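Subject: Sanity check before I submit

Could someone independently write out the C-alpha cells for this chain? I want to compare against mine line by line before I put it in a report. The sequence has 297 residues.
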Amino acid sequence: MDLGQVFTFALATAFCLGGAWLCISRWSRARHLLDTPTSRIRSAAQGYVELVGMLRELAVPQPVAPLTGEPCLWWRYCIEEYRSNGKRSSWSVLERGTSEAWLRLADATGECLIDPRGAEVHPAFRKVWTGSLRHPRGIAPSGWLGLLSSGKRYRYTEERLHEGEPLYAIGDFRTTGGGRHGLDLSSAKREVIRQWKGDYAGLLQRFDSNADGQLDEHEWNRVRLAARLEAEDRHRESSAAPEQHQMARPSEALPFVLSSHGEEVITRRFYWQAAGGAVMCLAGAVWLAMQLGITAW
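---
Independent answer below. Compare away.
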C-alpha cells in the first residue's frame, strides 16, 4: 500500500466515523428536546428543564452589537477576508466573538435569568454583508489608500437576540431563596467548618482557649456548635431572600439550547443534520469498502 492509498484510506475512515458521530449526536439532541416537557418557570422542577417565554431587558443600557452598533440582548459576529492564491480563493476567518451577557426570560408565572455561556444559540436575526474595511464601523481610508483597498474584500456576519422576541430554552434550572430548599444541617455545618479551616489562624484565635496553638476535643466541640449555629443563620438569611431562578449549561452531557425558533423547528433541523451525518457515514463506508477491495486486489 503506497502513501496515496494510506491517505485515501484514512480520509475514508474519518469520513465514515465523522458522519456516524454527527448522526448519533444530532439524533440524541433532537430526542432530548422532544422528550423533555415544557415547564412553567414558577413551578419548574430543579434540574434539566425546558422553558418557553419572552426575552426582557436586563441591563440598562442594553448591550450593543459590535459590527452594526445596534442595541440588542445578545450577539455573535464573524469577520472574514477574501483571499486569492492563484487558482484557489476562499473566505478566511479573521475575527469572531460571542456575547456573554445574561438574558432574562419571562413567562406568565415568573422570570428566569439565563447564563448563555456554552449554549447552542439559534437566533432569528442573522445579517450577512460585505465591505472594504476590516471592521464595518471603522474609518474608511482616503486618497490612494482608499483606491487600493476598494472592493468587497471582507464579509461580515452578525446574529442578535432582541427584547420582546420569543425564546425556547433547555438547560440546567436552579432556584435560590424563597425558602424553597430544606436545610441539610450536617452538610451545611461541614461546609462552614471547611471555610473556617481556610483561615486556621483565625480559627485558633476564636476557639483556642488555652492558647497552646492547637484545638483539643473540648475546643472542637465549641467549633462544631458555632458552625451549626452559623449554618442555621445562613439558611434563614437565604430563605428570607426573594426567589431567583437561573438556567445554565448542564454539568452532564445534555443539550443546552437557546433559540428564537420553536421546538419543532429546532428538532427538525437536528433531524436533517442527523440524516446528513448518516449519508456521510454511508458514503464513507462505501468508499472505505472500495479502497479495501482495491488494496486486496
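---
OP: Matches mine. For the report I'm noting this point. Confidence is low (pLDDT under 50) at residues 139-149.
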